[in-house]
Amino acid sequence: MASARSRLVAEVRASLAAARGQARTASAVAESRRAAALDRLRAVRDAHLACVNGLGAQRERARRAIEADFVASARRLADELAAHEPDLGVVRLGTVAAPGCPVLMPALVPLLDHGHLWFTGAASDVDSVVRLVLLRVLGAAPPGSVRLTVYDPERLGGTLSGFAPLGAASLVRFVGPGGLAGALDALVDEIQRLNALVLAAGHTSVSALAPRPAPWSVVVLLGDAATADELTPAASAQLDRVVRLGPPCGIHVVGRGLPLPSSPTVVRVSVDGRRAVSAAVAELPITLDAPPSADEIAARCRAVASAATSGPPAATFSSLLPGSYWTCVAAEELSAPVGTSLGGSSLVSIGLGDDPPHALIGGPSGSGKTNMVYAWLGALCARYSPDELALYLLDFKEGVSFARFAPSVRDESWLPHVRLVGVNINNDREFGLALLRHLGDELRRRAAAAKRFDATKLAELRAEDPGSSWPRIVAVIDEFQVLLTGRDAVTTEAVTLLEDLARRGRSQGIHLVLASQDVSGIEALWGRAGLVAQFTLRVALPKARRILAETNLAAETIPRFTAVVNADSGVPPANQVVRVPDASDRTTWRALQHALWSRRQSGSQPPRLFDGDAVPSLPPSGGPGAAVLGETIDVGARPAVFPLTRAPGRNLAVLGTRATEATAILSAAALSLSVVDRQERQAAGEQPDPAGEAGPPLFSVVCLDDGVLPAATALCAALPGGRFFDRSTVADFVASLDSSPGPSSQHVVIGFAWDARPPGIDLKPLLSRGPEQGIHVLGWWRTVARLRDDLGGPGSRTDAIGGWVALDVHGPDLSPLSPQPGGPTWYPRERRALFFDRSTDRAPQVIVPYEIPPDRLTAPPTALPSQNRGVRPTDAANADGGTR
Ligand SMILES: Nc1ncnc2c1ncn2[C@@H]1O[C@H](COP(=O)(O)OP(=O)(O)OP(=O)(O)O)[C@@H](O)[C@H]1O
């Protein structure tokens, strides 16, 4: 039992041991599984952690990249906006910060050519911003291109007093209390004017026109409640127009304190201290820039005003000159620079040829017309030799602007291209006419040559006829309108000639350059559309009016020393603005002239100088049997002569009270006759007159007025064989006529003051029968009426007077002696006379009485004064009857 129990115990024990063993084994297995599971868990956790960590870094990197990108874009944008700050159209007020963006952006608002800026807020805050805005606008725009109008009734302009220096260049205008309506009316008028221009040019805004026809106009309105009543309904309506229609015309309103009409063109800005907001910058808070100091404003405005008045830096005359002289050929055209372009330094050339053929230059006094002509001529003459270019230069104003081209006492040089210079000719319109006639003759000569060679233009003629010289001719007439003022024969003929030259000169290489100071010159032409149309080259100096096309106001706004050059009849798209160098400086000019003069061909003649103030000197002789009376006003400076033939009526009357000139004319006539002898007549190819005029003239000098006694006796003393009679001996003279030279001799009677003859002396037989017998009267009557008395009284025939020279006698008084009903158009003037020879002239001509050189009046000439030809022995006949 015990063993069974023991066995049983043993068995139980063994079972228990086995079970324990199994349990231990199972536990160990479970434990190792748990450990493995834990390991896996850890690995998973680690992997998860690693994964989470990796993703975070990646996200951080991506976030940083996006942020960097955003900041870079914001910076780029800020830079771009900053680059636009100097743009004319926008103004920077300050900076804006976008939420979450560390970069500050410039706060730019549109203004010029876009709209208006209207501020709300405390007046002092707003005014600081307004000063800032105005200074920025003035700084960005070219000097002179922005004009301010300031309405500040409360502080009478004091708010913007720092801008007053702009007044020096008329760039600011202050409008006082009560002036608002007027100022708005003026703006509306300006809008209307500019709109008309814009429409005419086919554009939609003034900014499309180049150059701008008017500066930008910024109108600053600083109103408040107290001034609101100035804005009457009418003024309010005008303000509405300005707000709606101003921006395309460059008219912009900036200000505060008035009820500005709402319009898409108005940018509103609300200001609070140094902060502001505006829909124009997405209502983001703007930090306003610091307002400029008063000194800063004044300094900037002074600089703007001075730059606006002094204009751009000058171009130089030497830049117009070529490297080597006289290398250009004018067959096709004459082309030369007149200045540099406004923006850069490139030369701007203008040409004269088939198109454009002629030029009009205009500008008010002092605007630089003459300087422009100097610059142009200098550039032309340096390029083209005198064989290529010939110049005729007339200046109708008081002054001697072209005199520098002719030799003078100070400078013997001349411009070799110049054929003729006219100065001080403002009273001698006839000289302009003479030039046109001369050019007309040249035109016909060229046309005839062209016809011979079957050439249609100068280039062809030159090619066909290379042996001849066919330079292009440029005729410059300054103040040409003087020539066309007056309803008389001079104007009529001048216009006809101008029309012909303008029309046909183109193909013959004759070019007209007409300059005028004021509109009247142009108006003189304006009625003649055909004539004006030929002048397709237009040069308008600053403020020139009506030189360009009617709608082209470019000359209004260009600065000093510039010009609008337009080769298309002045239409706006052809405008070229040129900076013209100073070509007036004598030293610079002289250097060029000397250089060109030293290259002239040997034998080159100086130009003919017609100086209206100079008194011409009596030439040695006027030709056989011809009395020289004065110098004709023509290109050749020919003497006006009165031939003493044996035809009836070959007497000459000098008419008028001006003793000095009457004496000069009679002396010139007598002295010129005294030096012509038989040999000279024969040398001149004149056949001896069958009536026997070959003998020397007998001179009788009759002086009936004591005032001219010295001159008359001096003349008589200078005449070979001269016989002298005064009031006491004039009866002897009449008696001596019976014993005067026979039919083979000529007797010249010089009568001073015939009208003072004593009673009983009858001149009629002498005047009417004398010339056939070789007795010619060259007499001075102080009135036409007294001459008529000597011819038989009023109504008597006047054909015994074949020629007359009128001094201070008015045209209608000359009607009895003139073929023209009512007499010639003649307004007497100093040192000028009107001469008419019935046998040759259709109309009288103006002459300049000569000055008699003292050596011609000293003694009877024993030899010709300068040519030394022939000596005439004293006529023995002078001993009888003559009183010395
Ligand atoms: N481009 C220029 N640069 C420098 N000075 C100039 C220039 N143009 C003109 N001037 C000067 O301005 C002054 C007036 O010029 P200019 O005599 O040419 O004018 P104008 O229009 O011919 O005047 P007016 O009709 O009264 O004769 C002169 O002293 C001249 O030297």
UniProtKB/TrEMBL annotation:
| Superkingdom to which the source organism belongs | Bacteria
Residues annotated as transmembrane:
none
Q: List keywords of the entry alphabetically.
A: ATP-binding, Nucleotide-binding
Region called Disordered, residue ranges: 850-884
Carries keyword Chloroplast?
Answer: no
Residue positions binding ATP: G363, P364, S365, G366, S367, G368, K369, T370
Known InterPro entries for this protein? FtsK/SpoIIIE/SftA (IPR050206), FtsK_dom (IPR002543), P-loop_NTPase (IPR027417)
FtsK domain residues: 345-550
Q: Provide the GO MF annotations for this entry.
A: ATP binding; DNA binding
Q: Does the keyword ATP-binding apply?
A: yes
From the Swiss-Prot or TrEMBL record, give the protein name: FtsK/SpoIIIE family protein
Which organism's genome codes for this protein? Answer: Asanoa hainanensis
